Amino acid sequence: MTFSKRILSVKPSPTLALNAKAVQMSKQGKKVLNFAIGEPDYLTPSLVVDRAIESLKAGRTRYTPSGGGPELRQAIADKLMRDNGLSFDINQIVVGAGAKEILFHTFMSLLNDGDEVILTAPFWVSYADQIRAAGAVPVIIPIPDGGRMPSLEVIESYATPKTKAFIFNSPNNPAGYILTELELKTLGTYLSNKPWWIIADEIYEYMSFDAPHISLLKACPELRDRFVLVNGMSKAFAMTGWRVGYCAAPIELAAMVKSLQSHSSTCIPGFIEDASVVALKAGLPLMEKDINTLRIRRDLAVQTMKKLGGFKYLYPQGAYYLFIDIRSQLKNGESSLAFSDRLLEQFNLAIAPGEAFGAPGFLRLSYAASNATLLDGIERLHKALFT
Fold it and tell me: Rounded to whole angstroms, how far apart are CA atoms 93 and 229?
């Protein structure tokens, strides 16, 4: 009996696996501090929840159009114009079961066997395996000193005639950096001279603490014919379990992504569409209080690490993670993956290992947790690393 070589090359999400193990330990009565999962710890706004309940009671429980209904896609188009200064027709917008599904279908629509996609470490955990599942090859540029986007010279050294696409994420998960307008224009000028597709994952757009979020397409509109903007409701509106993501793309690609969805998840539920429309119309002001709380927690986490001493980390300008460099603390050939497992077993502390993000020797700690939990967790981590 044989199986798909593509899917055999795909590994389960290590962050979800670590979270599942932490949850299981908690059910066994252990007090586990879980910083492994990329999820806000506050609730979906009641305005959004109430609209979903109203919609359910009104009978919005049947199939909706694949790719999203017109009202939802119009709300996304309005949001892209309002927040990002980008104009898209609703037929260029596709809504799916989370940004993860949208990315998967985008890769499946764009890539052929042997195509290469450039990833700059650290990168979100699912990019590489989704690319492999599409039959293509993830070309991973190692994390540079400072942890930001590598130089154009370095990117160029990884480009080949097989390069089909370039994907990036700003604000970045897991490093938390934000590309400045100058960096975006410099990158865009370079990419404008390449025949590649450009996929911009902007899922943490609202968690841009130290500088306003700018889309690469706004900075470099000449990229429009091969630019794919990916975003969703999960991070911005604390709607991770609702599973709503979307892309804005050239109309031919949008049609392919929509067609794939019609044969996979089919659609998202009508009551979730209605709730999403309410959230999108409300926009950032609906979430400002919670996002400001995240900013305060970021500052608390950084101050606590400075106070305890010894930590090396990449300063997070956005998202809600600290990416901690533990390479000098690892002993006797221990990997950060093994260290992460030891943290969970010995210190009841769940922190995602850097291997999941293409950066061995690092840990990703989510600071989307209460102040008390955050302080306790950082103190436990300090004890594990330095005593």
Answer: 9
